[in-house]
Amino acid sequence: MSLRASIAVCETSCIDDWCRTMCQENGVDKSNCMCQEQHESHDNRDDESQSLLTTNQFVSSYTDEQSKGKRRRSTQSKTELASLDLWRLQNLAIPLSYLAVGTLQGLFRTFLNVYPLNLGASEAQQTTCSTLATLPAAFKIIYGFSSDLLPLFGYRRKSHLFLGWVLASVVMGSLWLTSNLTLQRLDNGTSAASTTMSHSVVIVPDDAPSLVQLSWTFFFFGVGMWYADATADAVVAEKARLEPEAIRGSLQATCYVLRFFGLMISASISTYLYSTVGPQVIVRALTWIPCLILPFVWCLAEAREEEQQNQDSDRRGRGLSDSFTATPFIKKHSLRDQWDEIWRTVCSRSVWEPMAFIYVFNLLQVSNAAWRQFLVTVLGFTEANLNTLLVVSYVLVYFGTIMYKYCLLQTSWRLIYQGCLVLNLVFSAMQLLLIRGHTLGLSPFVFALGDDAFAEFLNGVQFLPTVIMMVSLCPPGSEGASYAMFTTVMNSALMISPAISSLLLGIWDVSKDALEKGDLDGLFNLSLLTTVIQISPLLFLGWLPRDRKELEALASKPFSGSPIGGGIFLSVLFCSMAWTFVVAILNIVRPNWAGGS
Fold first, then answer.
1. What is the torsional sign of CA 404, 410, 413, 418?
2. What is the C-alpha separation between 153 and 567, in angstroms, rounded?
3. Cys staple from 456: which of 82, 393, 524, 579, with CB 3.0 to 4.6 Å?
4. Would you state the pLDDT for residue 184?
5. 500: nearest Cα among 535, 530, 521
């Protein structure tokens, strides 16, 4: 009963008592006493009060339920926010995994660019080693399916993450423990104070690893690293569903910022470590970095599968959503069930239309394959200059991701791609000016630095909207396979693009002999052609939704659910994967098969 109703009942009772007393004192007959009417009115008020009491009890009960619901939602909200805090011990394995992947990439790229040559490998054999190290990335969709379908020791994610890093560490540790990785450098007399490898004779010990051992070691190391990477992607895709709308995408942005930070730092110091300490320090780092992540993987918050099922039933009984925990329980699918779910996903227009743009965009990022030869032959760039360009590119990719995370997170995806394509046209024009010798008073190195490095900055800006959109497309329970499938679409297009670049070399004469003779017309024409190809995705920009709401709206438009759209999507995916595998094999069997400058 409310306070006002209680006061009204109290007042009525007091008036009745006073009325009866006054009638008795003045000898008024009971039948003529106004108290009777008052009493009857009071009885009616009692009925009303009783009704009011019943209503208030219902309202009070409803209010209590509302209060309990609010407390449950508050608890749920706090738990969800805690699961999104990457710096809690229970989640720390995820950002560390992204940081490790970037760091390891920077380390082994430098190692494989130099060490096989020190062992006496030809450039073709060196290409084989590098190809085998990157080939496992083409199998990420298999890693994704395994973490979705095959729980190990009751866990769907952390056990696969643990296994990937253990495999990477054990494989690289075997190279470290079974081989002599030291190198002895002797001055060959070409420079009195030579400290660089270009002026030194390298003596390799007799028990150094063979090229076969080195190649397969890095292949299986890549399997472990990309296996762990695909599993970490699946965990992030699950957690990204819990993000509030205002900060949607920041979780992925943080993870990829860490990856590019690791790449930037390791690329900057790996060359120095290799030349001053030796290759053994790189191999030791590649062994120990995965080991350092394992304790944090052990602490990763994930309930066992049967525990998740019990928690899920209990949450539904208490009116909580399935997203109450960091890793919501998803009913285990068979391979057929998951394939059917992925088929329904790719048939949706909200999937095949934006992914078609992503594929076409990356496919058309065709570079000038003769550009490096021009920098060396005509402008006289040294290996140090080229390495500096590479390191600065990594630095600017990192700052590109930082800019997106803190300045452009809520900006339209279509506007970001449009702006990056227009700026790419500006930097490509700088490339044409450099060919003609118009450097605006700057040295050719500084001018080339602005051209190549800032193009990578744009790549960093436009990379994050792509992966954020891909997470939005993942169906619940199939995050590992679906996200790996979407990234494979993007990566396969990036693998085919260099082959197109090589095929364009035959249109004009851009050979080393022509460049040495000063004939740069072919190079100019090729640069102009590749510039036009690179900005041509502007014609397909309508396929890309502006934001997540427009992405979801595509599912209700005509041709959504069309098996034709899904069939074309999967056909392009599998053909591109086959092409990527064929290119990798050709790079191993017949390096430079596509021609050269």
1. negative
2. 36
3. 393
4. 75
5. 530
Helix (H), strand (E) at residue 100? helix 93-118
Distance CA(63)–CA(487), nearest Å, equals 48
Confidence (pTM): 0.74
CA torsion angle 42 43 45 46 (round to 10): 120
Sign (positive/negative) of CA torsion 425, 545, 232, 226? negative
User: How far is Cα 510 from Cα 371, in angstroms, rounded to an integer?
Assistant: 9
Contact 115, 279 (CB under 8 A): yes
Q: Distances in Å between the alpha carbon of 180 and those of 87, 281, 370?
A: 39, 12, 38
Cα 58 to Cα 55: distance, rounded to the nearest angstrom: 5
Is the distance from CB of 272 to CB of 296 less than 8 angstroms?
no
200 bridge partner residues: 187
Report the distance separating Cα 401 and Cα 510, nearest Å: 35
Which residues have C-beta within 8 Å of that of residue 50, sequence separation ≥ 6? none
- Tell me how far apart the alpha carbons of residues 12 and 20 are, in angstroms, rounded to a whole number: 13
Is the CB of residue 408 less than 8 Å from the CB of residue 466?
A: no
Per the listing, tokens 């899920």 go with: 312
Q: Is 376 exposed, middle or buried (0-12, 13-18, 19+ CB in 10 A)?
A: middle
The tokens of 89 are what? 């011990």
Q: Residue 233 is encoded by which pair of tokens?
A: 């992607």
pLDDT by residue (tens digit) across 228-268?
999 999 898 888 888 777 777 888 888 999 999 999 899 88
Structure tokens that stand for 142 in this block: 């298999």
Is residue 592 within 8 Å of residue 369, measured between CB atoms? no
Task: Find out whether 141 and 594 touch, Cβ atoms under 8 Å.
Answer: no
Alpha-carbon gap, residue 67 to 59, rounded angstroms = 12
Distance of CA 482 to the CA centre of its chain: 13
The answer for 376, left when phi > 0, alpha when psi is -120 to 50, beta otherwise, is alpha
Query: Rounded distance, CA 221 to CA 514, Å?
Result: 41
DSSP string for 341-402: HHHHHHHSHHHHHHHHHHHHHHHT----TTHHHHHHHTS---HHHHHHHHHHHHHHHHHHHH
* Torsions phi, psi for 468 (to 5 deg): -65, -40
User: Which residues make beta-bridge pairs with 202?
Assistant: 185
Question: Contact, 214 vs 286, CB < 8 A?
Answer: no
Report the alpha-carbon distance of residue 366 to residue 592 in Å, rounded: 18
Q: Can you name the residues that pair with 201 across neighbouring β-strands?
A: 186
Distances (CA, A) of 540 to 356, 360, 398, 501, 536: 9, 8, 27, 21, 8
With tokens 């700052």, the residue in question is: 399
For residue range 477-496, what is the model confidence (pLDDT) as tens digits? 778 888 888 888 888 888 78
Structure tokens at 17: 């008592």
